[in-house]
Design goal:
The protein is of the alpha+beta class. It is built from seven helices and eleven strands.
Length: about 350
């Protein structure tokens, strides 16, 4: 692969043995010839290549009149701005296929061609094909949509709307989406040199979060089963609550690391803003719901009866009028203790 980048001072040959990011091949030497450069937004590369007929994973047949070649272009919005031969590359936005007559190229007139726009000995096969990192966007949408929107929404369903069944369905659906998004991330990791070995912090934290979400689901199931049986909190309640909070927090932070890994820091800052808004909203709703439940508790008829020391209602059969019962004799003000030898009936 002959790679041309507008900041490089020489043409360079990266190699790839599959459909993933190529790596620089120092064993292949290239030299830019006069006339190379950028003219009217068009790359012109007159290069001489040495030791490039055969390489690991492929070769050129100089006796072929229809040698296959491919080409790729872009991206145009975020190009490489580095002179390093090992600089990271993003996925191209279009690619195509052409054939070249290497017999004519090897036996023709030597030197740099004078007509750089003539298809002399080459033929393009078909039209260029558009190409996008669509799976990368799906991965980001699935992971962040779940961590920032779906899982916090599950808390809203339970704490505010008091809908435990809707909470369970939402959280299980969120875990499934995360597992699918994580699978896409694992698949995409094989396409780039930096991530093929699974040593970046984003990948490691992502795998841990996927495992923690499975544990979170198990804790939620055990908590719900115990609550249905006893109608009270259990030893699974607090671990389920705090485990979920930590998963959401570290999941959001890992999303920021993912944007940095993809070279899109601006989206990372936008994510930070969305996470702040989501956390603020959840905390506000939690305090609002807590205060609402307190007000309801204090306005309950039984609570008023306890404060007032009387009946909650005239037709109540279960409330006990606190003012209608005198204190036991031992606590009355006019009670006089009797001698120990006195008959039992005279004590009270």
């Amino acid at each position: 692969m002959l790679c041309l980048i507008n900041t490089w001072k020489a043409a360079n040959i990266p190699l790839s043995s599959g459909n993933f990011e190529p790596s620089y091949a120092p064993s292949i030497n290239t030299t830019l010839m006069p006339g190379s450069g950028i003219t009217k937004n068009t790359f012109i590369a007159n290069a001489c290549c040495a030791n490039c007929r055969k390489w690991n994973g492929g070769s050129l047949d100089i006796n072929s009149e229809e040698q296959d070649f491919i080409y790729a272009l872009g991206p145009t919005t975020s190009g490489i701005e580095s002179d390093s031969k090992t600089a990271r590359m993003q996925r191209h936005i279009s690619y195509g296929h052409f054939e070249m007559d290497l017999v004519q190229a090897a036996t023709g007139i030597s030197g740099v061609p004078t007509n750089i726009v003539a298809n002399n000995g080459t033929e393009q096969i078909g039209d260029p094909h558009a190409d996008y990192e669509i799976l990368l966007y799906v991965h980001a949408l699935f992971m962040l949509g779940t961590i920032v929107v779906l899982l916090p929404a599950g808390v809203f369903f339970l704490r505010i709307l008091q809908k435990p069944k809707l909470h369970s369905i939402n959280q299980v659906f969120g875990v499934v989406i995360v597992l699918i998004g994580g699978g896409l991330g694992i698949y995409l990791s094989s396409s780039y040199n930096l991530t093929r070995t699974f040593q970046t912090s984003h990948q490691i934290i992502g795998l841990i979060i996927m495992g923690l979400l499975v544990i979170q689901s198990a804790l939620g199931y055990l908590h719900h089963r115990s609550y249905v049986r006893t109608q009270r909190s259990s030893s699974y309640t607090l671990p389920h609550i705090w485990h979920g909070r930590l998963v959401i927090l570290f999941g959001a932070l890992n999303g920021f690391l993912g944007f940095r890994l993809a070279g899109r820091s601006a989206l990372g800052y936008l994510l930070s803003l969305l996470v702040f808004i989501a956390i603020y909203t959840v905390v506000y709703l939690a305090f609002w719901n807590r205060n609402r439940r307190k007000r309801q508790a204090f306005s309950n008829p039984r609570a008023r009866n306890f404060r007032d020391g009387g009946h909650a209602s005239s037709d109540s059969t279960t409330d006990i009028p606190l003012t209608s019962h005198a204190a036991p004799p031992a606590y009355q003000a006019d009670y006089v203790p009797q001698p120990l030898g006195a008959p039992p009936g005279n004590r009270f």
